[in-house]
Amino acid sequence: MNPNFLNTPIDYLKRVGPQRATLLKQELGIHYYKDLINFFPNKYIDKTNYYKINQLHRNSAEVQIVGKIVHLKMVEQKRGKRLVATFIDDTGEMELVWFKGHKWIKDSIKLNTPYVVYGKCNWFNGTFSLPHPEMELLEDHKASLKTAMQPVYPSTEKLTKMGITNRVMNQLIQELFRESGGKFYDTLPKYLLEELKLMNKAESLFNIHFPRTTQKLAQAQYRLKFEELFYIQLQLILKNLIRKQKIKGYTFDQVGVLFNDFYANHLPFDLTNAQKRVIKEIRKDLGSNAQMNRLLQGDVGSGKTIVALLSALLAIDNGFQACIMAPTEILATQHYNGLLELVEKLPINIRLLTGSTKTAERKEIHEALLDGSLHILIGTHAILEDKVQFNNLGLAIIDEQHRFGVAQRAKLWHKNDIPPHVLVMTATPIPRTLAMSLYGDLDISVIDELPPGRKPIKTVHRYDSNRLKVFQFIRDEIALGRQVYIVYPLIQESETLDYKDLMDGYESIARDFPAPKYQISIVHGQMKPADKDVEMERFVRGETQIMVATTVIEVGVNVPNASVMIIESAERFGLSQLHQLRGRVGRGAEQSYCILMTSHKLSDDSKTRLETMVRTNDGFEIAEVDLKLRGPGDIMGTQQSGVLNLRIADIVKDNDILKAARYYAMKLLKNDPNLRLEENKVVLNTYKKIQANKTIWNYIS
Ligand code: ADP
Ligand code: MG
């Protein structure tokens, strides 16, 4: 085969004229032969199976049955007529139904002659029926059967309207195979194909488009999924290796005075085993001479802050500065206050820098950063400003990273000649499967254990009609000295409407919880930061018992005395957001509660989300459900990630293949890190093509 065969523009394919070429390009992004050959069916109609009528059940989907029509009749309905055929086989009787095209069907149907019918099975009033079935005389069917599994290609309305039907797609691909002679080079090394008993490339491509049998189809799918995931993993692992080889990092080889003193004398609690393990992992990274790039995952309340502090102390012990960046002013302030308290007895200098830091103070901070007398800087995005220059930044810690983009992370790197070590902390548990594909270039640590003595939060779902009871519950909790959050959704598109909901809610709460007995704080996005802080502070100090807010309080806010979280219109929140919000309570010793308020109108997905919240407190389990409901593309912060434009594999369903692909990619690179071995030549070539093309599936030529 001509090596450039697959780079032939699609216009040159037989049966593709200028009009079809334009359509294929515009609607499906198919520009070259290689795009077409890698345009995979998204489902197959299984025609290998024949059902008997007595095997049908209510949930049967698409079925294929052999039988005869013994009777035809017209049935009058309110809206038009329908043509009903009585269809039998040797096990029973059912109906075939047509709502239009009656004359043509009546004229062409042969009574008492064997047919193969195929269609979606309905069950109604005790009878099974197939509306508008595909029909073929058994005789013709036997003669014509080419492939048992019929591929169905993704399509668009426009394509169908312009005559590029599934059948046409099929013909085009057949044409391409004819021209190619079916010879396609393999893109995986031979020893891997043998070891894993993978189908070769040419056969896989053929069977993905024209499956000979269900088994061959499964083999083809496995091979192509493996390949896709293998090259993604290879890229990620290589990126990580290159970083470790090329990007020198500062070596923190001293576990010095500050770390040891704090560890021995000032830890306010015993660390959990998970915290100890993670600190060890971080210490190992910091002690090597490669730059650390580590993601620390830990559910809300799992105790990430102390890990951040201990890491920062290591930096200072080695003569470096550290910074901690948080996504909101409230959070940055809270970190600052919390850390200030923790290191009270240590001789270190900590400062806070946010958008509302006054000019004079700002100047002081800039100077102290430059002369090195400031050890830990805590702040918001303000830290990223060019004016903020460090003497020697050794460690950058980013809290709640999904709020920050990758670009911002990179910005921190350029504050020095040698990039600082980076620790990214997130409370949004990313399912391992997703983390492996997304952050394969980060090392991952997990705190999978909550500090002892926490009582699991009790979560319930209540309808708006039960509001009076919920209010009574709030009164009881407040009488016990606890505090309550009431959160309203805020979704950008309907901001004004949401604001009105919040205000209406606030008024009704103010009526039911009158001053002076009850004091209420309110925080929302349309307030000035200073006013927000005042309201927040009142709640933190316990001067108000109820905090009415939008999702501003989602992240990180810590008020241990708050024991009730009420989420209004909970059906409008995503799962990870609900989980984050719930994490605001359950931080003290008291039993805490989360009440999800909704109307009666709930979609299936909303129901699943609510049930999941009620069932479990485990952030990872919730993240898995979330991933299944939304698909990986929508998980917060992953939208930009091209990694997830998978063509054939599914990160959730093909988890096992992903693991295998990762394992073999690692093994290969361990053995041959520079891809120099002859046996890995095809990997090197393929990898280069992927790098040049930026997409995984255009490299096979
Ligand atoms: P997050 O991981 O959500 O940032 P924090 O670091 O804010 O969690 O910790 C939550 C609370 O748990 C804090 O009040 C902290 O002091 C406390 N905490 C953290 N680790 C432990 C521990 N090992 N034992 C007891 N309490 C702890
Ligand atoms: Mg935190």
Automatic annotation (TrEMBL):
Identification of the protein by name: ATP-dependent DNA helicase RecG
SMART domains for the chain: DEXDc, HELICc
Enzyme nomenclature, EC number: 5.6.2.4
Reactions this protein catalyses: Couples ATP hydrolysis with the unwinding of duplex DNA by translocating in the 3'-5' direction; ATP + H2O = ADP + phosphate + H(+)
Stretches assigned to the Helicase ATP-binding domain: 285-447
Entries under NCBIfam families matching the protein: PRK10917.1-3, PRK10917.2-2, recG
Broad class of enzyme this protein falls into: isomerase
Domain of life: Bacteria
The species this protein was found in: Neptunitalea lumnitzerae
PROSITE patterns given in the database record: HELICASE_ATP_BIND_1, HELICASE_CTER
InterPro entries: ATP-dep_DNA_helicase_RecG (IPR004609), DEAD/DEAH_box_helicase_dom (IPR011545), Helicase_ATP-bd (IPR014001), Helicase_C-like (IPR001650), NA-bd_OB-fold (IPR012340), P-loop_NTPase (IPR027417), RecG/Mfd (IPR047112), RecG_dom3_C (IPR045562)
GO molecular function: helicase activity
Short name of any one Pfam family annotated for the protein: Helicase_C
